[in-house]
Records
---
Amino acid sequence: VQANLTQFIIGCLQGEYFVQLDVDFFFIPHRLHYQRSHFLHEILIYGYDSGEQAFEIIGYNEKGKYARSQVPSLELEQALSTSKDEFLKENAQSGEVPLWFEDKWKGLKIFLYKYKKEAKYYFDPQGVTEQLSDYVYSKNTSKRFRMFSNTKEAVWGMDIYEYLPDSFEMHDPT
């Protein structure tokens, strides 16, 4: 199944689509969780090097920098083999299921993006100012988009720093 999926991804890339899907970062080189722990998260695939038999991806690397890297085809196939159901089963009891991981995300979802050369986007300084203001004053930004989806109750903006210490495990370096 994974080999068919990688062939599907290659076909999408040949059709000039970018591919976003969830993978297990345990199998993705240059990621913090690589060969250390299972962590299900999305990646964006933007190319394929047939000579190297590797996919070109972009995302945050092990140093926290947004960067390009390669994933060999075999490792991508392994990263796709961890299902969301398995991930939930393994991590639910330990309490390590990320907050963004909702039951409605079960099952493989693939998002395809295509660059539209003819599309125009105009910079919106007022929108940027509003978003920055929401961040600084910890306003619920989801309320600005309530016409598209329900608002979300969460911690917003600068208020996150109050909760960060609670989300880290303290380790004794000795």
---
Amino acid sequence: FQPGNRMHEDNVKLCEHLTGVRAAALVRECLYLTDPVARQSPIRFDTRLEAGLLIRVSEGQLKQVLINVIINGIEAMERRLKQEDSARRLTMAIRAQGQGERAVISVRDEGVGMTPEELERCRTPYFTTKPEGIGLGLCVSNDLVRLNGGTMTIESEPGAYTLIQIAFAREEVQ
């Protein structure tokens, strides 16, 4: 980026708003905020959140990413249950853990999954696998993670699961 460039100025402003965020507390808040959606589904949550795990991010932006990923997972699991005509309970596993110098937040659903072609295109603007979707959720989420200095990886198997891992530099607790 070059000084005077609007994007550069926006990124400088973003950096000024980065704060040390406790990953476990942020995940719990996102689960609370998505509870009205989750409560309507036969879905269980399995959370394992490392206490004291700190990351330097824009809290609001990471919250937007996690809420999007959690709701996508819930909807994918609902679609799987409808396809299978099943009343069984599926599980969404959410982890926040340190891995060396990185802090990783992972969300693994047991939904419909994605084909290799869908997986390749899922971060492309306006690409969606949902009849009611507009195709911006993962695209915007990926951009927000990158703006905050992180990476987002996605793996998936059709009819089985999708795993999204978001990694940031780990911040030392003061």
---
Amino acid sequence: EELFKLTNLRDGNYEIKYRSKDNVTNTEEYKTAKIVIDNTVPTVEILSPTETGVTSLCNYVSGKVEVVVKISDVHLKSYKLAVIVSNSEAISIIAEGTNNVSEGTAEWDTSNLPEGLYTLRLTAEDVVGNTNVDTVTVKIGKPKLLLSIRDNLLHPDGIAVDQEGYIAPLKTFS
């Protein structure tokens, strides 16, 4: 028994001719088989929301979040968009399908979720098993304190943010 490998072939459709021969030289007629070579992983991308910096004050998400994704492959089998709670094994599927998506949206309701870091994971697989994954980590919640300048604090010299995310004005002039 000999196995053969098809190497250095570009992705595409091919036709293979083959026949068998036994130990006493009986030979069958040529047969053909059509095959597809696909070495290309699906293209996957989470376009929105974008990655959240751990200390960022501007990249929080809350409420109903529109997740925009892009998925493409000539031989796409399926894709799944999942949410993973950071430091946990808990996974929730928020979208899945079998068709290419140019800029599709899925709604993710974060209203009842506790504040913290979450990972959006988009996975696609084609019919021959090639897979690709894109992930984005987001922070659910709102900043602990929004800076508010009142009449007695007209010109702060600067602000400081402590390790817990609290903001404090530095020397002020009125």
---
Amino acid sequence: TYRPAGFPAAPAADWTIPACVRHSNTRGQECFIVDRSTESLPLSANTCPSWVHPNAHGAGYFRFDFPEADWKNVFAHLADLDVAEKGAALASLHASVNAGNVKPAMLLQVLPLLDREMDVDLTEQIVRVLDGVSRTFVNDASRPAFRSWVTARLSSKKKALGWGENAANEPSET
């Protein structure tokens, strides 16, 4: 269950959801019905895949979680993921950080890997994540350094996406 750290968990509930997985050992996706909160899925690969994305094409309405090393591995293979999968991974990592399962530093390590992504929807998601990090984890003393870091993340996107040309289209500053 994803919830902010320190908040009580909702009563346990099991859901049955369809989930499709993409991984390095297949060109397509493998789909399953998941009916438990933790599930091991038998992939058809003959060898262990170098990367796995549990929400193929970002089509599932769910979050997923990994240990830190697996998060690093997913983001190390961004070139293999489509835009929706990148967004699903970022949203799930952000939720994992908010739940206290992964340290906020992990977000700060992976966000620069998305600097060259120019998709408008993914960029807006990045801005929302940066805003959440700012509100939740950045104190007044570190805010100027964080703003500089955010500017470095978004400066190339600003021109490419036309954000300076019309202030109404520009996201608010973090």
